[in-house]
Structure formats: structure tokens, C-alpha cells
């Protein structure tokens, strides 16, 4: 009696060293990118929003705007009180040493630069942690000036990507330059309205200047200036980063397709 032995066909094991190496490489490549095609460095970016969501409205027009207005008003009022309270030389609109017109110019410039730099770090952090989504419904600009202004053709322009002291200097300078450009847009109307308001409440002198004797007009003016600039300028600074990151994420995703 002949017993036929069944032949069991065995496939080559998939756990060969070569296959294991390929699997490891595939895993590394899949981990190196997140859903938006951006290097996974701990970031948790949301998908760019195709409309102005409630989260974005609260972030831009309430949290950033209101916080900046309150902080700017408090700082401006405190500095003005320390500067102008009980001044023997008096407080004037144009005459030094206590010229409110010069103070207005310096305050506007300083507030724009400081607020811009703070917003760059705060908003980028909020976007990176997924607390708010970037904007994705605006068309990415093709013109050279706007692409330069929004740093769209320069790599590693997120704060957490900047490495080395020279790159930090370049990063800070690039943002200071852009904040000054926005300041130049705001300055003419803000300065004009400020001078008009101060001439209305000041006392005109024979030499064509205005002074503010025994009043809190300078302090109140600086407080109002901080509120106005904080509530109107800060949303634009916040939008700058939110829109820019949306364009960067969408461009990165397209490059991975």
C-alpha cells in the first residue's frame, strides 16, 4: 500500500532582512510627514479652513483684538502718567521736551513692532498646536511683492523652525520690516486724527502751539490710542500669520501629491 505524502507548499517568509528594511523605511517616510505634507516635528496643524469659522472669529476679533487693546491701553496710560504728571515744563503738542505729537509717533511705531513680533510667536503657536485653523479660502498671491511680504518663497519661516543666531536675526529683522510697512499705512490717518483731537481739547498758545495745563488729557489720549491701535491693528497682524500658514500648508500638500 502506497501512502501519498501531501506536499505542503510554503511561501517565502515575508520577514526577510530586505523586507524588514523596506518596512522600516516606509514607516519612517510615513512618519516624516503629517496630513498636510509638513514635516512632523510635533506640530498639529488643522486643515486650512474654507470659510471664516467661529473659532477664527473668536481668535482674531475677540481674543487677540481685545487682549492687545487692554494691554496697550494699560501700558500707554502708565507710561503717560509717569511721563507727564506734575511736569514743571508743561505738556505741549509740538514743543519739546514734552511734545505729544512726537510721543504719538513713537508710540505708534513701538506698538506696531512689539505687537507684530508677539503675534508672530503667539499665533504660530496656536496654529501649530491645533487650537485654531489657518485660513485656506484666500487665493495664494502670484505677484512678487505680496509673495515677498508674506515670505512665501523662503523656507523655515515658522518660529519653531528657525535655528542658529544668524537665522534668528534674519527672522526678527524680516518681521520688524513688515511691521514698519504696516505702520506706514496706519500712521497718516492715526496721526492726523490724534492731532485733531488734541487741538480740540488743548489750550492754544500765542506761538501757535497747544498746551495741556493741569489736565489728564495726555494720559487719557495715550490710553485711547492704545485701545484703538490694539483693536484695529492687531487683527491684521493676526490675519497675516493665519493666512500665510494656510498658504504654506496648502502649497506643501500640493508638492506631496
Automatic annotation (TrEMBL):
Its domain of life reads Eukaryota
Q: Where is this region: Disordered?
A: 1-44
Q: Where are the transmembrane segments?
A: 60-79, 99-122, 180-200, 220-243
Write out the entry's keywords from A to Z.
Answer: Membrane, Transmembrane, Transmembrane helix
Tell me what this protein is called.
Uncharacterized protein
Q: Which organism is it from?
A: Xylaria hypoxylon
